[in-house]
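cron nightly-structures :: item 1 of 1
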Amino acid sequence: MSNITPIIIAFIIISIIIAFAIGANDETFAVTYGSRTLTMKQILILATIFAIAGAVLLGEAVSKTVGKGVLNADVVPLTEAVTITVLISTIIWLILSSALGLPISTTHATIGSIIGVGLLGGMAGIGWPKLIELSIWWVLSPIIGYVITFITYKLLHKYVINKLNGFQQFERTEKVFAIILLAVICWTAFSRSGNDVSNSVGIVVGATEGTIEIGALLILTGLSFAAGIVVLARPLIKNVGTITELRPSTAFAAQVPTAIILFFGTIFGIPLSGSHMLVASLIGLGKAQHAPKNKGNMKIVLIWFLTFPIAALLAIVLYFPIDAFI
């Protein structure tokens, strides 16, 4: 890093805090808890390893997408006040939702905040082509997760589970799926860290291009992301892991679409919501199993829709005192 000023130090500190809050809202390993594949201690150890690795190795592409494109910088320049507003708005909503045990989208919280400051310049302050492109992915990814999980469960049940003879065969099969599930979850955690941590650094990278070394910032935020999981994510992991009844084979059906979509989305620099995909997949699984409806699902879906306007409104309200102070 070079030419570090006090305001850039403030950017870095807030990014680290946001990464911690993102980790606190990470429920990637929820299905391993719900299916009793891993203990909470084992979950936290693996989550820490893959959180750091994913942030460092995969975070750059999505960071650049978040930092540019959604905000029309020709109308609303990425000033110090704008950058801090987006960061603080994001962190407030993340911490509040985590305290309530709600799996919100970090991506939506960040982009919602960027939209809020963009609207200060009117409709022209938003980079609509990029926002529309991202919105298509945000709509399609949970739908794909729901459908693929539903189909995968039905195929597994028809061609594998129904052909088992006796409890011992069933137990052996579930042990095999437990190993496969663990590999898929670790893959997901790796991708999700790269995608989610980018939300904490993207706007900073965009505002300080050439000043901050993105690799160093990703290391710092990756460590903070892992700390957030260890310190605060347990209630959320338990909450999401009990959306529907799980065992290793059914958890595998729910996790596969999230793992695939999230990995390729991260590689191509698309900020996605791992929370939305996983919860949609679990709801699809519950539907396939004809499980009783979880009343908490509607609250989760409602929070999804509210995240954009709440984050945007927070950004608009916070901008004026922040701008006056700076």
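cron nightly-structures :: done
Residues 166-207 form the longest helix (42 residues).
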